[in-house]
Amino acid sequence: MAAKDSPLKQFEIDPISNIELGGYNISFTNSSFAMLITVLVITLFLTLTVNTRSIVPTRMQLISELMYNFIAQLLSDTVGDNGKKYFPFVFSLFMFVLIGNMVGMIPYQFTFTSHIIVTFALATIVFIGVTILGFMNHGLKFFSFFIIPGVPFYMHPLLIPIEVISYLSRPISLSVRLFANMLAGHTLLKVFASFVVSMSFFGIFPLAFIVALTGLEILIAFLQAYVFAILTCLYINDAYHLH
User: CB burial class (10 A; 0-12, 13-18, 19+) of residue 59?
Assistant: First the structure.
């Protein structure tokens, strides 16, 4: 358990309502609440901006259209025409991670993307889905993905295990990247926030740093959502085109 004033205190999962079903704890927690808020914000934002359909778009409508075009172009550039059918999934994933990161930037709100169990669950869904897609498109030929074209056959016993390990580590690398960045950034913000209080008048210096760091964290929140989305697109591309 983290100490009261520990920077890690903000990452503790606390139950809002205790629920047990069949011997399993399925309590509604602060993490669950943050996810619910994220889904409600996304739903409300897209509903209000899409329903306007003004000839001269409002600022919010313009942001919505930019996000739509951003993911559509990302899929087109990485997957091609085959990527259109996966737009709803990639767009939903991108928005969930992005808004989840942004909600976590609000003071006293919980950042669920700072927990490896959440990011690993998202990455595992992508990994399993892409693997199934690869077998659907290529059957057993999908195993040729682990053979690098043009490499001498006597190198295969060495390179194939490396390729298999690399493929199996995708959900780990995808999840750890997001989790580690959000965890480190929020911990750093908390540490400098404690300096503001303890240094009295001279706390203006760490306060100025916090303002700059917050801007950087907002940028990282977007970049991490982008990285998660683009790697998902690249994995989908691999399932279609192998090497």
Answer: exposed
Between the alpha carbon of residue 61 and those of residues 50, 134, 186, 207, the distances in Å are 7, 36, 30, 34
Global pTM value? 0.88
106 vs 43: which has the higher pLDDT: 43
Which residue reads 């919010």 in tokens?
60
* Alpha carbon distance 54, 162 (integer Å): 53
Question: Do 138 and 242 meet the contact criterion of CB atoms below 8 Å apart?
Answer: yes
| Nearest-angstrom CA–CA distance, 126 and 143 | 18
Q: How long, in residues, is the chain?
A: 243
Encode burial over 136-170: b for 16+ CB neighbours within 10 A, e otherwise: eebeeebeebbeeeeeeeeeeeeeeeeeeeebeeb
Write the CA distances from 221 to 34, 107, 109, 182, 216, integer angstroms: 16, 15, 15, 8, 9
Q: Give the number of other CB atoms < 10 A from CB of residue 220.
A: 17
Contact in structure between 100 and 34 (CB atoms under 8 Å): yes
Residues 113, 102: contact at Cβ < 8 Å? no
Angle formed by the axes of helices 87-104 and 116-138, to 10°? Answer: 170
* pLDDT on residue 107: 80
Q: Are 146 and 168 in contact (CB under 8 A)?
A: no
3-state DSSP assignment of residue 110: coil
Domain limits, the chain: 27-241
pLDDT recorded at residue 86: 93
